[in-house]
Backbone:
């Protein structure tokens, strides 16, 4: 698969402050790529530099093989973290305006918008001013504006931040549809369950550098590998083979050393008289990876 | 796609303003209000002058000048008297309605008018009738109607003034180049705040980032400025059409005192200078507003800086007498070449014909350069400033960050 986004040796400095340094990664066609990191780690700055809003201090950022130019917006859907629309204008006027800016004809933009509004339950709101809509309704319009040009590249910065569950569900469904159509998606999020569900590969930023980069299993393996999830009855014996990171009355999660086989742990437990009701070997969650990289406090802030 | 998006921005910004009911209410309210005031004033003046000269009321008069013949006095409803003191006392006591005491030398002393109070406005009828009586008496005395008209309105003159052997245009030559000063003033008053609003709108609505991925900030800003100029022209048409209609249907209602339309003489050079100075001044002003809007977090913060700019631009208006009468004195010279005060000063001097061609060239070049720099700086600041939500932008850093 060819790279649709290429970032090479990217550096960004604001005065004396270096926000990003020596950052390189690719996003390949058709994949969903997660850009992760704590607040202030440089995720949004990277996207802004990629889309030509910031001038990078160093390195190269390419979209479809060239430095991003607004003429490429017909192939781009961008939902920024700080988002809004023209509050005093009607829904249909704003959607038609963005459709025109993304290369649709006015008729196509209006037709698409009306169909979309029907789909998301807002058919009677087309002529209503945006500031007269509820927060959730405005979010639906923002999502519509982002995808109305059927973009080949979708960049979503904290897309579900502030969304109510209905709009969140809608967005995730639309992302699935876009992905099925072959769109490449860059997904910036703190919601690690979403990252695990959606992303093929991730880049984890820390202190302005790439801390981890690769598929989710690769990253999970790097930060702790496998974990045993156990439902049981009895007393969990102490052992130097494993470390109980979660230990409740009838449930536990055990990290174990690389040189230990899960079956050895199971054998030890049974030998100690523990009645095992379920036993599952998994990788550690992305949330756990995040906690390990940033520490519990920083992760809580994020 | 750049050109396409430019047109899209212009159309969106223009249509969303002119399709609002508020725009038409605001735009039409000014000419409608003016028309109402004109109509009321005109009707009131006509009614007043007619009623004041034709309202029949009896009066006594004492004529020391000997101008008023008994027949004329009677025709006006007057009765002569030889005792002014008694006549005044009769008015004061209410026995008589009015008394006019005409002095021996009407040219140097006023006619004393005494009357019963009939209200502040209606009391004017006494002066009106006394004046009409004396004017009629003078015309009767002169006999020749042409001489009587000459005596009433004075002789007409036609002046030809030379400067270095060439004819100097009169006051009529000020009108067309001076129109650019009026246009500049109206642009700032009517469009300035609007321009600040549209510059800050993307930031306040958090829509800048989505917009800036579809077009360059230059396209967006220039599109907004062009749309605003279109809105300004629309407003000018809304203001101007009623005046034009009034002018065509009632020429006497719309006129500049002391100036007939035929006196307006076009001076192509001064008109061209006025136009270019206006365009560059507007560009400079627009660039400054974009920069202010980009740097300030809210419209309230931006309004303070906007007011400071406008006040500075119109400082020369406070020294207008000096700019007109002593255009080459130190202060008008400084005002002419200082970018912020140059527009008003140069436009006034150009209208008055005191801006030499080489001075005009310097001002035009300076304003052109400053306008270009201001627009470029404004656009660069906008690129970064428009996504700095809720905080004031560090100008140096923003200029470095912008692409």
Residues:
């Amino acid at each position: 698969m060819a790279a649709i986004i290429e970032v090479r040796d990217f550096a960004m400095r604001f005065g004396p402050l270096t926000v990003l340094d020596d950052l390189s990664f690719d996003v390949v066609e058709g994949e969903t790529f997660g850009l992760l990191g704590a607040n202030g780690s440089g995720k949004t700055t990277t996207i802004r530099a990629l889309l030509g809003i910031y001038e990078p201090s160093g390195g190269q950022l390419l979209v479809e093989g060239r430095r991003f130019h607004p003429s490429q917006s017909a192939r781009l859907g961008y939902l920024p973290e700080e988002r809004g629309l023209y509050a005093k204008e009607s829904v249909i006027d704003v959607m038609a305006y963005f459709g025109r800016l993304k290369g649709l004809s006015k008729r196509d933009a209006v037709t698409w918008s009306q169909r979309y509004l029907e789909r998301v339950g807002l058919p009677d709101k087309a002529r209503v001013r945006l500031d007269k809509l509820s927060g959730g309704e405005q979010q639906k319009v923002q999502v519509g504006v982002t995808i109305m040009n059927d973009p080949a590249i979708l960049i979503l910065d904290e897309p579900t931040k502030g969304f109510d569950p209905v709009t969140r569900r809608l967005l995730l469904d639309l992302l699935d549809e876009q992905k099925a159509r072959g769109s490449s998606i860059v997904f910036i999020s703190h919601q690690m369950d979403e990252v695990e569900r959606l992303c093929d590969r991730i880049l984890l930023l820390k202190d302005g550098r790439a801390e981890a980069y690769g598929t989710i299993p690769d990253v999970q393996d790097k930060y702790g590998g496998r974990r045993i999830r156990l439902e049981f009855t009895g007393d969990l014996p102490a052992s130097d083979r494993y470390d109980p990171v979660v230990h409740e009355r009838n449930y536990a999660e055990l990290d174990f050393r690389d040189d230990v086989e899960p079956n050895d742990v199971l054998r030890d437990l049974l030998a100690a008289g523990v009645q095992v009701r379920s036993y599952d070997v998994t990788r550690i969650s992305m949330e756990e990876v995040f906690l390990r990289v940033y520490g519990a406090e920083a992760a809580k802030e994020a | 796609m750049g050109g396409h998006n430019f047109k899209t921005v212009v159309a969106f910004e223009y249509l969303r303003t002119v399709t609002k009911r508020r725009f038409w209410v605001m735009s039409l309210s000014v000419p409608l209000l003016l028309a109402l005031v004109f109509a009321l004033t005109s009707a009131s003046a006509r009614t007043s002058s007619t009623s004041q000269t034709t309202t029949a009321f009896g009066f006594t008069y004492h004529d020391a000048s000997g101008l008023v013949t008994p027949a004329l006095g009677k025709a006006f409803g007057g009765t002569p008297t030889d005792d002014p003191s008694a006549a005044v006392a009769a008015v004061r006591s209410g026995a008589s309605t009015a008394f006019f005491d005409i002095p021996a030398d009407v040219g140097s002393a006023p006619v004393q008018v005494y009357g019963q109070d009939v209200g502040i406005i209606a009391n004017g009828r006494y002066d009106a009738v006394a004046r009409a009586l004396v004017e009629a008496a003078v015309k009767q005395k002169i006999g020749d109607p042409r001489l009587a008209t000459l005596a009433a309105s004075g002789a007409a003159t036609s002046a030809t003034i030379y400067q270095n052997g060439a004819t100097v245009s009169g006051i009529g030559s000020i009108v067309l180049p001076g129109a650019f000063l009026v246009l500049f003033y109206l642009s700032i008053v009517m469009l300035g705040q609007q321009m600040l609003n549209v510059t800050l709108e993307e930031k306040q609505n958090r829509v800048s980032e989505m917009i800036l991925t579809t077009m360059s900030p230059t396209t967006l800003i220039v599109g907004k400025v062009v749309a605003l100029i279109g809105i300004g022209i629309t407003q000018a048409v809304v203001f101007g059409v009623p005046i034009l209609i009034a002018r065509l249907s009632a020429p006497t209602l719309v006129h500049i005192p002391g100036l007939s339309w035929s006196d307006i003489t076009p001076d192509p050079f001064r008109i061209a200078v006025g136009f270019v100075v206006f365009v560059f001044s507007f560009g400079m002003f627009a660039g400054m507003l974009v920069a202010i809007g980009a740097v300030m977090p809210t419209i309230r913060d931006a309004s303070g800086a906007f007011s400071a700019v406008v006040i500075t631009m119109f400082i020369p208006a406070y020294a207008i007498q000096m700019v007109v009468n002593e255009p080459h004195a130190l202060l008008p010279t400084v005002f002419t070449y200082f970018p912020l005060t140059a527009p008003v000063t140069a436009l006034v001097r150009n209208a008055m014909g005191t801006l030499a061609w080489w001075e005009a060239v310097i001002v035009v070049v300076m304003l052109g350069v400053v306008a270009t720099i201001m627009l470029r700086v404004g656009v660069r600041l906008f690129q970064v400033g428009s996504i700095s939500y809720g905080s004031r932008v560090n100008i140096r850093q923003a200029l470095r960050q912008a692409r």
